[in-house]
Structures are given as structure tokens and as C-alpha cells.
Design goal:
The structure holds 2 protein chains of 2 kinds.
Chain A lengths: L1 E4 L2 E4 L14 H10 L6 H17 L5 H12 L6 H7 L4 H8 L10
Antiparallel strand pairs in A: 1-2
Chain B lengths: L2 H8 L4 E6 L8 H12 L5 E6 L36 E4 H6 L11 E4 L5 E4 L1 E4 L1 H9 L3 E4 L1
Parallel strand pairs in B: 1-2, 1-7, 2-3, 3-6
Antiparallel strand pairs in B: 4-5
The chains are: A mainly alpha, B alpha/beta.
Chain lengths: 110, 144
Amino acid sequence: MAYDLNGTTIEHDEEGYLTDLSQWNEELAIILAKDENIEMNEEHWEVINFLRNYYDEYQIAPAIRVLVKALKKTMGKEKGSNKYLYTLFPYGPAKQACKIAGLPKPTGCI
Amino acid sequence: MSEDMQEEAEGTVKKFMYVNRKAPYGTIYALEALEVVLIGAAFDQDVSLAFIDDGVFQLSNGQNTTDIGIKNFSPAFGALGDYDVSKLYVEKESMDERGLALDDLMELTWEDEDDDWEEKPSIHLVSREEMKTILGNQDVILSF
């Protein structure tokens, strides 16, 4: 199974997560988002960029409650809430956002 | 409602201890233990970790796995604080036997919400005697 990015084949697993994380780029993120019926805006990118930085530092995709806590600290109460994240990523912020960010499925996501 | 059920409804917090005794690479135990800790953290229990024998190597800083072709998962220990796991007990005798000092370990911290988010160290060096007491105080011990 694979995505097609301008003729380049990018492999993914049965759930849509990238096989090779290094193949991710912003253009691909937009395609990944479309598959999830999400039109990327600035607020989506904020979360995606945050996740990518987190993964860069710790080599894991954070669980949802860790994501919420961290967003609350860096971006304030309004954006650091489950509700806000679910408005952006209605079918599960951790799963959908991680997929769009090109990360593996979150550790501690049950 | 019986008393037991009432207690359950309010959520019983048990003391969980994950004991790590193996080197970080060569077997899957260390990585699996860390994943279980991260997953288990969702259940709001009182979690601590013990590092004994070769397990102390899991926390050594500057791990580089390029030549063995395995992912270096040690940065994930830095995320434990975010998961409210802030008690990592390292046995001093095991460190001494391997010529390791606190300086050889990663600097791991957690932020204390009740103390203006002050960063506090997560790693505690304890003697074999102290480790016995700590292990004795647990409700659940999972050994890896």
C-alpha cells in the first residue's frame, strides 16, 4: 500500500501510517490529511509541528493526555484541551494528527 | 453498592514498580518495559521504576546504536516526566560494580505542577538496602 506524491511512491502500513518516517514532507501531510477529510489550516499545522518536534526530541509520539498537557503549557488553556483537539481532528487527535505528522501510532494510545 | 465497588468507582491507586535488570540492547526487555510504562501511565497509578544490575545501562547518556542497526530509544526516557512518571530508583551498588557514576546517566527531570512547574530530578540513587525497602512497599511488581 502506498501514497502517490507527484509520481513518487510512499509506502504505508494497513492503517495508513508511513513505513519510512523520513519520507514525510508538508506536501505529503496535506495528502494524508485529505484522506482523513481534513483541510489543513494554521491551527492544524501548530499541532502537527508540535508533534514532530516532540518526536524529534523523545523518539515517541505522545499519548493524547501528554499532548494536551504540553499544548496547555505552550499555547494556553484554550488550545490545551481535549475539546479543541477533537474539533481539529474529529476521529481521534492522537491517531489522526500523528498519521498526518508522519509519526508512528502513539505510544500509550489505547 | 458494596464497599469494594465504591472503592473501585472512586479509583484505587496502587503502587506499581517496574524493575529493569537488563542491558538496553541485545534483548527486547528494556524497550518493552518502557512501552508498558508509557501505556500503563494512562491509568493514573503510582508508578516507579527500579534499575538494577545491567539495567542501569539503560539510563547511560550518549547512547549510540548506529553500528548495531537498532533504534536508540533512550530519548524516550526523557518523556517519562510528561507521563507523570517521576520516580526512577537506581541501585548504587550496581552502578559501582560497573564503574558508573551519576554523571554517566542521562539528566532526567519532571515538572512539579504544585511547585510552579519547577524542574526536579527523576533519578534517585539508592543503596541495595534502601531498594529492598522500596520494593517491599509496592502493591505490584513487574520484572523485566
